Every structure is written in structure tokens, then in C-alpha cells.
Amino acid sequence: MTKRNFLKTSASLMAGSAIAQNPRKNWAGNYAYKAPVLRMPRTLDEVRNFVKAASRVKAVGARHSFNSVADSPVEQISMRLWDRMSLDVKTRKVTVGAGVTYGQLAPYLEKSGFAVHNLASLPHVSVVGACNTATHGSGSKNGNLATAVSGFELVIHDGSVVNLSREKDGERFNGAVVALGALGVITNITLDVVPTFQVRQTVYENLSLAHFEKNFDEIFNAGYSVSIFTDWQKRYASELWVKSIASSKPSPQELFGAKAATRKLHPLVGLSAENCTDQLGVAGPWYERLPHFRMNFTPSSGDELQAEYFVPRNKAYQAILAMERLRDRIAPHLMISELRTIASDELWLSMAYLRPSLAIHFTWKPHWPEVKALLPEIEREIGALDPRPHWGKLFSMKPKYPKTEAFRALAKQYDPQGKFRNEFLDANVFTSS
User: Fold this and answer.
1) What average pLDDT does range 19-28 have in this prediction?
2) DSSP readout, 250-286?
């Protein structure tokens, strides 16, 4: 960008609106946004005016989705400047602006002795974006990040402001929390918080996947949050990350034959663990252990692709066997897979809606033509297990949810002209299969 264009763009930002410099891309660099205009409002009135005047518009968060869920054919609104946070100690709720990331929220809560119940593997994601796509973290007894949402403020199609809450809106609220931006632009969101807690992290090496047939529950209940990393070769998981409440009994030195590591490890064998959260059983604050990667470091260059599928927990071992059948097809293009469990919830478009789940995550090399061809193969292999793809990752199947029709009706109420629709929503939510 030339100095002249930089100054011109800076002036636009000061006015609350920016003409996008294309191509703008997501964090991973695999998707270039098509929206020719990017708005960056500073006030609620600006949000209302931008939404009311736009023919088509979509909110974009921290750009950590790997697909077009946050894109628009006309305009995007970035809420990055909305970074205010307000904690109500009496009600144990925190309200944050739509631009706040978990990396900003966590230290703020910790100072007052509070926490959120769960975190994703990356603290760099925005709170609103993560909740609106049902991003999940890990833990057999932990709901995804959106289950902490107790209310939010929404600017809808005509520029008016709507406030929704779990307390007053009931089932309508369950439909609106995970909405993929289809209802409007969220300006702030309120979360339930819990007392702060300390976590220790122990990493084990070389766990045989054969143990999952009879010991699945015991393995995934070994800690508050558990992650398994594998490349699907040789029927072994290279690493088992167990994050336990610090006051619980000490972690064993061996777990189903897997040995506790004596050095810090990265999920990708052989890479430096410098960017990873502390391990070796050393206790620390929840927000410095529940993510895999530290906030002050970039976890990777972003030059990767991601896909993830949720299957019912009672079909987890069948899904693991299915992935093993595809290991030779997967191997040339895979960096690593991660297995995590998530508690069920009542949010209509959550991947764990009404069922405890196993999430099978793939971090791919940037081989898009090959990965694009692989995704339908994976989806066919686990098709009988009723998989649900992560809304923010790559997939080719049509997601199926019991409440899809109800969600379409809800979206129609808040967005009767389809102002917040885009190609992604039309293909995956608003068209019948």
C-alpha cells in the first residue's frame, strides 16, 4: 500500500468506515473475502446506520473461520474496536464488546477472581465469533463456549436494537445464540462466569488407540479437559494432553501404557513447544492451561487448513475405526488430528445439540485440491454416524439439525429480507436438501 493510500484508509477508519483493500484474507490465508466494503463502527448509532443502509451485510470477527461464513457480497462490519468489558460480581456475569478476544477477557476476569468454564485451543478468537459458531474447547462435562452466554445485544435488519436473554426468551434464546450471524450484528455479549481455578497440564506419549474400545470414558474423564493427538498411523496417539484441576489428586506417571513426558511438547511431534502453554504438571491459572497455545505467541504461520466433525459420543469408537480405514489417504495431507469430547447442550445449531459428542479435528497441510477431494470421502465413511461439521471449518456435506426449520423461521422474524444471508448460509442452512 502506498503512503497516500495508507493515509486515505486511516482517514476512513477515523470516520468509522473503511473501503477494503482487497484481497483481505482470513487468518489462515486460505479464504479471500469478497465483500468490497469493510465498515468499522465505533458507536452503536454507527452500527445501526450501517446496517439500516446496507442491502447485504455481515459481521466479521477475528477471521479465524476457514470458510465464507462471515463473508458478504456487499459489506462486512468489523466490531474490532468494540473492546469494553464490564464484570458484575454480584450476578457473576461479564458483558464484553463484540471485538473482545478470549485472550483479552481472561486476564480481566482473573484480576477479580473469576473465569469462564471453558476455552478453545486458541485464545486469539473473538468471544462473539466463537459463541456464534459453537466453538467448543474440551471436557466431557464441559459445554461449548456458547453455553456460557446468558444474553446479548443485537442490531437487526432495520437498524433497531434487540436484547435477548436466557432468562426472558427461553427457547427463542436457544435458537439465537448459535446463529452464524444470520439474525443481525451482535454488539455485546454477556457470559456467566465462575470462580477462578488453577489447572495443571500433563502430556503423555504413545497411547494405543486400541484402548478406546473399552476404556473410552476413562481416558476422556482423566482430566477436566482432555485432548488426543494422532496422525492415524500405527494405531497410536502420539500425545495425550490431560488438563486437571490443580486441587485434584496428582496425575499418574502412566496412563494406559502412555508415559508422562519429561519435556514440554508441541502437538506436532518435533516442533518447538515454546508457543505452547506450560506442561509437566506445573499448576497455573485456568487461562494459561486450558488453551494449547499462549496468547502472546502466534501458534503457527496460519498456513494450514482445518476440518472437524462431531459424532455422538456413543458412536465414538466406530468413528475412530472409520478414520483408521482412511489413514493412507489422509496421511500425505495431514499435519495432525485432535480428538476431544464435549457435553451436550440445548442450542439449536450447536454441533453438540442434545447429544454428548466426540469431535474429530483435522489440521491439514495447505493442499486444498487434495483436501477438497478428501472431505467427501471422510464424510461418507462416517455418514452413518450422523456427523455434524464445525460451522467455522471446511466441509462439503449439508449439515442436518433437528431444529433447522425452526431456526429458519426465527431468522425470518429478525431478517425478513435476508440482509444477513450469504452463500454459506444459503447453501448450508436455508435450502432444503
Assistant:
1) 74
2) PPPSEETTEEEPSS---SSTTS--TTBPP-TT--EEG
